[in-house]
Write a structure and sequence with these properties.
By secondary structure, the protein is mostly helical. It has helices spanning 25-32, 46-54, 70-83, 97-111, 119-132, 145-155, 158-174, 180-191, 194-200, and strands at 15-16, 36-39, 116-117, 138-141.
Amino acid sequence: TKDDKTVTLVGTIHIGNDSISLLNDDIKQIIDNTDVLSVELDLSLPSNLSEIQASGYLAKEDTIENYLSEDEIEKMSLTFKALEPNFNINQVENLNSYFLSSLYTNLVYSHAGISGAGLDSLMINRMNSRLNKGENVQINELEGVDYQLETLNLLFSWDSLKDLINESYEIVVVEKNAKEEPLTLLEIYKNGDIDSMAKMFN
């Protein structure tokens, strides 16, 4: 707090579960009493969603075969099939490394029964409700689409995807233990266990 202004930092998570109330009374009170909600990216804007979706494809006539070996593609296919039996590798042959990484994340969380909206989305939706009522509030994007896509494409490169393919194949196909990590992550977040969260990603 400085002068008459207060900044509240809320640690969010991009996944959710109907069994856990992420948007609790404390968070609701924060949102209902703030003038500006600052987020990485406002995914409630159709233009942002359209730009992100359009960015997930390789150039025309370019395919994953130009970036991944036959063995890596086979492992990825088997991993995705273990998470979603109706999966067909031909459906994703034109996706880039970031979208393939995102697809794996979505499938593994869905497989674990985690499919609800994350806290960031819930907060944005609640702020939009206030906007729709004509309140003098705003949603501020800290990054925007271009910056976020540039960052994500650097983080989720083809090399990082290769590592993910090998790691996920061992966990999902060989060990058949796909549900442990997402369920553990959600439990750690729910409990506010910062030390365990740090260990999990280091």
